[in-house]
Design goal:
Amino acid/polyamine transporter I; globular; binds tryptophan; 0% strand; single chain; 77% helix
Length: 452
């Protein structure tokens, strides 16, 4: 049961955890689900979920990970034993292992789109492109399963190679340059949107809530996305927490990560919606949103190919630093429990997930009309993980940290006392679990049958 090294310090942990949090969720998913769910009110619920559910649960995950110091399955088992609770708590770890594999399967497909756009940008495809041309370009890519498969395979291989080399495999350093660069790029894009798009319409869409547009399903999506974007509910952050030095403040670290993650998502929204409105595009057009809007902006800028290639390359890096945390728990579990090498375990997990990804690829072309209850295979993978497995994982993690763990254990590990500890405990014991429970029950219709 060896643990591969320890983070070189607080900064390295923040980088890795931010690397995990900031990814396609912020730049690809947040804008498109915001567009599909009507904007402002959805964004507000999402922000509330980050503050009241995401932050306390992230603290809980890091705390459990640092205390358990192993993969999420063993960590849950060990801590449950320590507190005299049932070893069934390890099932939370198992659910996370599977959620990670399922998310990676489609995450790699979408990251493949970014890779393909990087290659297109290098060839100058976006220079001077019109809104219509950008839409066509995207549909051509989606329609070709062999291209999607090739890019998905390339991205999955890149992730597998990095994970196989271990936690410190150089990505840490790359992220410390790529993240700030991505941030600067986004600011630039927002600047373009201010000068050339319907900027105020975009701001209005994102920030002025109209609750009549907010369905129960939208609330679930907003909550699910709070878990997704912060990498919570499946043990990814728990696995990273195992490498966090003892003297680092979990609360301050968590807040830093949550703010960085949220700012990136909002910037992406501010860069995209003004273009959507100035070109008469559809805000709710779905997963292709950034791929049909951002090229228009790049195409219109001087040095369009240069800027577009840099942007899509940075997006691929952001996706990579997230993707590694999706398969890390499964890999850690296998290497800590069996004789298999890290390389072997990574190829096994990554390979299985890659295979599952083919289902998502076909959802965009050959099987796009094959729906179950209105959802394609890709839709189901995303729905089951983001809207069900992550919130359930988070619910159990909150219950464990808030109720099963003694106050002494959690207070010591968080090194919190007084008001800040009470606030965390209140959010973790009551607010987070109840909010998750109510939303899940409401959407599944159970609450309605109980006449509430
Ligand atoms: N948070 C990442 C993003 O927004 C995706 C991700 C990485 C993730 N690791 C995770 C989501 C663990 C849920 C659980 O792109």
């Amino acid at each position: 049961m060896s643990v591969q090294g320890s983070w070189s310090g607080k900064f390295a942990f923040i980088l890795a955890a931010t690397g995990s949090a900031v990814g396609l969720g912020n730049i690809w998913k947040f804008p498109y689900i915001t567009g599909e769910n009507g904007g402002g009110a959805f964004v507000l619920v999402y922000l509330l979920c980050i503050a009241a559910i995401g932050i306390p649960i992230m603290m809980a995950e890091i705390m459990l990970g640092r205390r358990g110091h192993q993969n999420p399955v063993n960590t849950m088992e060990k801590l449950a034993r320590e507190e005299g609770a049932s070893s069934a708590w390890k099932l939370v770890g198992w659910m996370g292992v599977f959620a990670g594999i399922m998310i990676f399967s489609y995450y790699s497909v979408i990251a493949g789109w970014a890779l393909s756009y990087f290659a297109d940008a290098l060839r100058g495809v976006f220079s001077g492109i019109t809104a219509e041309g950008a839409g066509k370009h995207f549909n051509t890519l989606l329609g070709s399963w062999p291209s999607l498969l090739a890019w998905h395979t390339l991205f999955a291989l890149m992730t597998i190679l990095i994970v196989a080399r271990g936690v410190r495999g150089g990505l840490e350093k790359a992220v410390s340059i790529m993240m700030p660069a991505l941030f600067v790029m986004l600011i630039l894009m927002v600047g373009y949107a201010m000068g050339n798009g319907e900027f105020m319409k975009g701001v209005h869409f994102l920030f002025s809530p109209d609750f009549s547009k907010l369905s129960g399903a939208a609330v679930l999506t907003a909550m699910g996305h709070a878990f997704f974007t912060l990498s919570l509910g499946m043990g990814a952050i728990m696995a990273y927490g195992a490498y966090l030095p003892k003297n680092v403040s979990i609360g301050a670290t968590t807040i830093t990560i949550a703010i960085a993650d949220t700012v990136v998502a909002l910037l992406a929204g501010l860069a995209i919606f003004p273009i959507v409105f100035s070109h008469g595009l559809e805000a709710g057009s779905g997963p292709g949103l950034i791929f049909t809007t951002l090229p228009i902006a790049f195409g219109d800028m001087p040095y369009s190919s240069l800027f577009a290639s840099i942007f899509f390359l940075l997006l691929v890096f952001a996706a990579l630093s997230s993707a590694i945390s999706l398969i890390e728990p499964a890999v850690a579990r296998i290497t800590e429990k069996t004789a298999m090498s890290r390389g072997g375990a990574t190829f096994l997990v990554g390979g299985f997930s890659w295979l599952l990804g083919i289902g998502s690829i076909l959802s965009f072309n050959m099987l796009s009309e094959h729906k179950l209850a209105g959802k394609t295979f890709f839709d189901w993978m995303d729905y089951l993980t983001s809207n069900i497995m992550l919130p359930l994982g988070g619910l159990f993690i909150a219950i464990f940290a808030g109720w099963v763990m003694s106050r002494k254990s959690s207070g010591d590990e968080l090194s919190l006392s007084g008001f800040s500890y009470s606030l965390w405990l209140f959010l973790t014991r009551f607010v987070a679990p109840l909010a998750v429970l109510i939303v899940l029950l409401k959407v599944s219709g159970v609450l309605d049958t109980l006449f509430i």
